[in-house]
Amino acid sequence: MTPVVERAERVDTLVSWHDIGPADGLGPPVHPAFRAVGSNRGVGRYRLLAALGIGATASVFGIRLLLTRQAAIARRRIGKPLGEESLDADRVWRRAFEGEPIELLLLGDSLAAGLGAERRKQTLGGRLAKGLAVRMHRPVRLRTVAVVGAESPDLASQLDAVPEGYRPHVAVIVVGGNDVTHRIPTSVSAQHLDDAIRRLRAQGAEVVVGTCPDLGALRAVPQPLRRLAASMSRRLAEVQAETAAQAGAEAVDLRRAVGPMFLDEPEEMFSLDRFHPSALGYRRTAEALLPALCRSVERLTPPVRR
Questions:
Q1: Residue 210's beta-bridge partner residues?
Q2: Are 104 and 142 in contact (CB under 8 A)?
Q3: Residue 102: strand pairing partners
Q4: Which label site among 13, 26, 193, 229 has the fewest CB atoms less than 10 Å from its CB?
Q5: Active site includes 109?
Q6: pLDDT digits (tens, 9 = 90+) for 161-215
Q7: In the sheet that 250-252 helps form, which strands lie side by side, from edge to edge?
Q8: Catalytic annotation present for 110
Q9: What are the pLDDT digits (tens) for 75-91?
Q10: 18 catalytic residue (yes or no)
Q11: Active-site residue (options: 110, 152, 271, 296)
Q12: What is the value of pTM for the model shown?
């Protein structure tokens, strides 16, 4: 287990109940008359603590009930108007360029799969492949194994689905949103991301990780659930960036790179369901990832033949 995963695991267990009460041997001596039943002061203290415990329990229950109701509201608002099948953008992009195609592999969730785009060239994969081809003056063969609804634990099965003998030059992983909404522990997400990166690196591929986007931009999610989602997605993105660096990948902070655009221009940046990116949203996301993608191709040893 890597140090960053160990730290994430420790953070996941910070919120817990602790025993509350006077330590043995501390406090003033108790008069013999009260030793059998406890001092008035002690009884009052325990009654107060009991009342506080009941109040805290009621508050926690109330908050959980509120968040559960708000999650149901968000699901109704978002729905599934886009279905669960994304466009197939796999092909060789910019065939007119000379040289062997750069092999680009795309893993992750619906964002990586391009759900919400109306044309294949508008998907994240299509935009990345076309943009990389233009910048490197080389054709790019895109292969997408990303799956709508996927979480970090699904990265292993996505890699297993790659045909035997296929060796990508560079891989892009974008995952995390479903980890937050399905409350997968950060340490679990980090470990599966770490495993996927190391598998790809062992095959000689360069890896770019687009960290979890800012779920606080989802206007369809009511407050305070949206605020909680924003905090959880930010924390996951930070851990993903650390994990990527330690495993030999380059991370791109999508929350900072494109998050403000989704917050300021939700009508233009989101698609019909107000959850997945629109054509413009995918364009901005691809623009944020492309510099790192180009650097990854330039780092290939031996370099991709022209």
A1: 174, 252
A2: yes
A3: 140
A4: 26
A5: no
A6: 999 999 999 999 999 999 998 889 999 999 999 999 999 999 999 999 999 999 8
A7: 92-93, 140-144, 102-108, 170-174, 206-210, 250-252
A8: yes
A9: 555 555 455 788 999 99
A10: no
A11: 110
A12: 0.75
Q: Which residues contact 291 (CB under 8 A, 6 or more apart)?
A: none
**Burial per residue of 231-250, b for 16 or more beta-carbon CB atoms within 10 angstroms, e otherwise:** ebbbbbbbbbbbbbebbebb
Catalytic residue among 39, 88, 195, 273: 273
Q: How many CA atoms lie within 13 A of 246 on its CB side?
A: 17
| pLDDT for the residue numbered 49 | 57
pLDDT at 28 over 90: no
Active-site pick, 271, 276, 278, 296 = 276
Question: Where are the chain's structural domains?
Answer: 32-78, 92-298
Return the CATH class of domain 92-298: alpha beta
Q: Please count the CA atoms within 13 angstroms of the CA of 21 that sit on its side-chain side.
A: 9
Q: Which two tokens stand for residue 167?
A: 């060796």
CA atoms within 13 A on the CB side of 287: 9
